Design the sequence.
């Protein structure tokens, strides 16, 4: 049902799906406490998905999240930051990554729109229960970003993750302390190790 | 790593960095795209899947706002793990038994009794089970 064309051909589709530009809250599925407000929509355990376009300007997003949190304290709220979604192909190639192996240096992500992650965010737990709403955020990559890239010009620190870590391997963020210690010991980022290994 | 976490928890053991690295070494090379854990001392697990490819184009970011730093950074404000790819990660050898703490060696003795080449996939699928140890052993 939700299998609208995704991946590299998603530009026009995305423009249709999302009415608003940067800064708008484009999709908000809210679980109702009474379970009667939205006909046919399952309530109770459903989670809230919040797509927000403001990439690193935190305040508006934080406010929105807090408002929703106040109205329904039991639901999961995951904001997907779509500030960089679906941008055009003529972004400059980032330089300085000649050291990186070929595939991670060249492969773009297929998740280019907030909706591409909606299913994942809805069906699997990305952040563990200890993470307070909005304290870590899922963010869509820009078209020229590669998994081996560094912080660059970004204001906030971040790290890349593979979707398979969540839907296949059942990991949550933050990872277990001992797993973070292994990564530090072998000096690899989370996406730098093969998920099969 | 995740299979090791589940296995230890199910067996009532405490997974630690050095206990895990007793079983695995790394030999990163620039030609291989991703770093693999290579078995050492004992072959605990088989591969998760014989071929595992779709992951490469399935990435996104986790951004760390200031109020969330405590989850990812330690008390000295150092990241608990490398947030970004390391240009040339060094090879790491498996930890010797002598480098483990007494508690880790106790847990190691239990792990040594387990059969080789456990299949990680069914093991990981137990994560959601309310009674973890019965799901793994039962």
Sequence:
């Amino acid at each position: 049902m939700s299998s609208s064309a995704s991946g590299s051909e998603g530009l026009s589709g995305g423009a249709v799906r999302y009415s608003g530009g940067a800064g708008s809250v484009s999709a908000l599925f809210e679980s109702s406490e009474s379970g009667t407000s939205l006909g046919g929509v399952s309530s109770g355990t459903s989670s809230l998905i919040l797509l927000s376009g403001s990439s690193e300007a935190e305040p508006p997003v934080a406010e929105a999240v807090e408002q929703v949190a106040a109205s329904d304290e039991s639901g999961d709220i995951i904001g997907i930051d779509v500030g960089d979604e679906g941008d055009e192909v003529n972004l400059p190639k980032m330089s300085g990554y000649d050291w990186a192996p070929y595939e991670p240096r060249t492969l773009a992500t297929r998740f280019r729109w907030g909706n591409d992650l909606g299913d994942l965010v809805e069906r699997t737990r990305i952040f563990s229960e200890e993470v307070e709403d909005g304290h870590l955020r899922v963010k869509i990559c820009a078209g020229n970003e590669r998994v081996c890239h560094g912080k660059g010009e970004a204001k906030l620190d971040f790290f890349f993750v593979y979707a398979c870590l969540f839907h296949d391997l059942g990991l949550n963020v933050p990872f277990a302390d001992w797993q973070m210690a292994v990564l530090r010991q072998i000096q690899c980022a989370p996406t730098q190790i093969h998920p099969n290994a | 790593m995740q299979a090791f976490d589940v296995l230890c928890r199910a067996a009532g053991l405490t997974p630690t960095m050095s206990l895990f690295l007793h079983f695995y070494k790394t030999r990163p090379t620039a030609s291989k795209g991703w770093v693999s854990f290579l078995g050492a001392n004992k072959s605990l697990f088989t591969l998760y899947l014989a071929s595992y490819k779709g992951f490469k184009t399935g990435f996104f970011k986790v951004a760390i706002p200031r109020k969330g730093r405590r989850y990812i950074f330690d008390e000295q404000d150092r990241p608990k793990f490398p947030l970004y790819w390391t240009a040339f990660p060094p090879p790491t050898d498996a930890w010797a038994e002598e480098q483990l703490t007494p508690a880790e060696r106790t847990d190691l003795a239990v792990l040594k009794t387990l059969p080789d080449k456990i299949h990680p996939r069914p093991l990981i699928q137990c994560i959601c089970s309310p009674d973890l140890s019965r799901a793994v052993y039962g």
User: Anything to note?
Assistant: Chain B has six helices and three strands. Chain B has one domain: 2-58+93-137. The beta strands of chain B are 24-26, 37-39, 59-64.
